[in-house]
Amino acid sequence: MRIGFISTRLNGTDGVSLEVEKWDKVLRRMGHETFYCAGELGGYAAGGTLIPLLHFNHQSILSLGRRAFGPNGDESPEQVIDDIYRIADEIRPPLRDFIRKNKLDLIIVQNALTIPMNLPLGVALTGLIAELGINTIAHHHDFYWERDRYQAARILRLLDTNFPARLPTIRHVVINSIAQKRLLARRGIESVVIPNVFDYSTPPPGIDEYNRDFRQAIGLADEDLFVLQPTRIIRRKGIEMAIELVHRLRNPRAKLVITHSATDEGLDYWRWLQSEAKMMGVDMRLVDHLIRPERTMEEGQKRYSLWDAYVHADLVTYPSIYEGFGNALLEAIYFKKLIVVNRYPVYNADIRPLGFEFIELDGFVSEESVEMTRELLAKPDVVRMMAEKNFEIARQHFSLEVLEEKLRQVLASF
Predict the structure, then answer these.
(1) What is the pTM of this model?
(2) What local confidence, expressed as pLDDT, does residue 395 receive?
(3) 264 secondary structure, DSSP code
(4) Distance of CA 15 to the CA centre of its chain
(5) How far are the Cα atoms of 1, 175, 349 from residue 325, in angstroms, in the given order?
(6) How buried is residue 184: exposed, middle or buried, by Cβ count under 10 Å (0-12/13-18/19+)?
(7) In angstroms, rounded to a whole number, what is the distance separating the alpha carbons of residues 243 and 245?
(8) pLDDT at residue 158, rounded to an integer
């Protein structure tokens, strides 16, 4: 089968791009041919079809988002909707060409029919799927009703028609059971849960000649406590809890290292975090300038992969307030690290019941969690046993082999 992935961005280390790479690997292993189309391409998708208007950061798309979800002003909703459809008409022809030129049998729309970061793209895809009658998997990561920033929308009818669209040739896939229940209750749409996954059959990498100097590159000594926060700097990641935890450990050698940028949702949250860290005396370092999707050299300087950071970490913090699932949590399990996790809703519903052993927060940093962290850091043998147990549970429930079986079932439904 010839299968095309369509998204706003297929590049970098965001959750959607990472998950597409896993789906792509499994589908090709199953014997299918895969193709890519997005507003930004890189890595595995570098040879795909680039359509700049698909990117959520395109100026035309950003402007429409501000008009649709910002202060009302004097503009009517009808004016905004007219412009959404006008740009959708520009997007539809190159998308149609992508499908026809590659003779696609199936398209997999990655989050573009889910969260309205690109309104015209959702509208264009809905119309095109209906027009062509093409079999479609709509892979949903974040619904608009799950995000506060989209609650004041003046275009709710358009959102409920296109995000997601309800068409006979679309099969809907969600990444957690909470989303499955809400999609059915809100829109009457049935869906299949396919959680985020990881390649647990491949042994994790370790320290090698390339990454041996990673601690030195980020200014850490061998004896420092390397606390890794492997996420973007956005409010729902709850990074203030990681700062408080490090502060309350009372370890002068503890360093909090953040791997991803602060640009996705503005810099206000990052500036506040910097103020909090300074006030609490926490050494917090942003190393996104050194991290790339893959190891590379830039102007004679090493750039490391995210895996190189995990290898060296002593403790991984994942204090998210909300997650669609939790890619970084699966990664930390893969690298067999001691993990601090906040009990966000999907964790409580789909992950915690499986029996993992983490240091848990419940929306705040308790004295119990601080003491447990301090004690476990001094007991590497206990941590090793916990990590091995966590790895085995994740392998059983969140592996590529699990993904393959679930994809077979969805493809057989057409």
Answers:
(1) 0.89
(2) 97
(3) B
(4) 2
(5) 29, 6, 10
(6) middle
(7) 5
(8) 94
Q: What share of the chain is helix, strand, coil (3-state, %, to 5)?
A: 45, 15, 35
**How far is Cα 295 from Cα 293, in angstroms, rounded to an integer?**
7
Domains of the chain, each with CATH number or no CATH: 2-197+400-412 (3.40.50.2000), 214-397 (3.40.50.2000)
DSSP state of 399: B
Nearest CA-CA partner of 346 in 46, 142, 198, 152: 142
E-strand stretches of 319-409: 339-342, 359-361
Compute the residue count for the chain. Answer: 414
Residue type at position 25: K
How many other C-beta atoms can be found within 10 angstroms of the C-beta atom of residue 46?
Answer: 11
State how far the Cα of 137 lies from the Cα of 199, in Å rounded to an integer.
22
Q: Which two tokens stand for residue 310?
A: 């995990």
Bridge-based pairing state of the strands 339-342 and 301-305: unpaired
**CA–CA distance, 130 with 231 (Å, rounded to integer):** 37
Q: Give the Cα separation of 263 and 384 in Å (integer).
A: 36
Cα–Cα distance, 139 to 172 (Å, whole number): 6
- Closest-CA residue to 282 (of 206, 351, 365): 365
Residue that the structure tokens 């204090």 belong to: 319
Structural contact between residues 283 and 252, judged by C-beta atoms closer than 8 angstroms: no
141-151: pLDDT as tens digits: 999 998 888 87
Mean pLDDT, consecutive 10-residue stretches, the chain (414 aa), reads 97 85 96 98 94 96 90 79 96 98 98 96 97 98 88 84 96 97 96 96 95 97 97 94 98 96 81 97 96 91 96 98 93 98 97 98 97 97 98 97 97 96
- pLDDT score for 147: 83
Contact 183, 143 (CB under 8 A): yes
d(Cα 315, Cα 308) in Å, to the nearest integer?
14
Structure tokens, 158: 């358009």
Q: Given this model, what pLDDT does residue 43 score?
A: 87
What token pair was written down for 51?
């359509």
Residue 262 CB neighbour total at 10 angstroms: 20
Helices (DSSP H) in 102-155: which residue ranges? 119-132
